[in-house]
Write a structure and sequence with these properties.
Elements lengths: L7 H5 L7 H15 L9 H15 L1 H24 L6 H22 L14
Helix pairs in contact: 2-3, 3-4, 4-5
Length: 125
């Protein structure tokens, strides 16, 4: 299921709690950067992904439906981490665990940008 549903929040580099104005502003910035007409940084595939993510998250009804799936995917990932490896093979389980850990770290870094280096992990020097 996780591979079938793209993470629109990750594509737009925003939090799932982002306000509609934030969704719009971030989309405009990223779309301008990767628009196919942009000779320096244009990327048609990325632009299509951004547009798909924006259309899903900018419409309140579509966003609500997406959030249900998004939450289910997140919960499934955490269940895998909490319950240990029940995947078809160890590689798949390890990959999901690593993706979950990276997602947690990335989200924390986005929400707390002022924390950096060794202080970021909560340790002291």
């Amino acid at each position: 299921m996780a591979s079938e549903t793209p993470d629109y929040y990750d594509i737009l580099q925003i939090s799932p709690t982002a306000e509609p104005e934030t969704v719009h502003k971030v989309y405009r910035l990223l779309a301008q950067r990767c628009h196919p007409d942009n000779k320096e940084t244009g990327n048609e595939a990325q632009f299509r992904q951004l547009s798909e993510a924006y259309h899903a998250l900018s419409d309140p009804e579509r966003r609500a439906k997406y959030d249900v799936r998004h939450t289910a995917i997140k919960q499934a990932r955490w269940r895998l981490v909490e319950n240990g490896s029940h995947a078809d093979n160890d590689f798949e389980a390890e990959q999901l665990v690593r993706l979950t850990v990276l997602e947690v770290l990335y989200t924390r870094r986005r929400t707390e940008p002022s924390r950096s280096g060794s202080r970021w992990s909560g340790g002291t020097r």
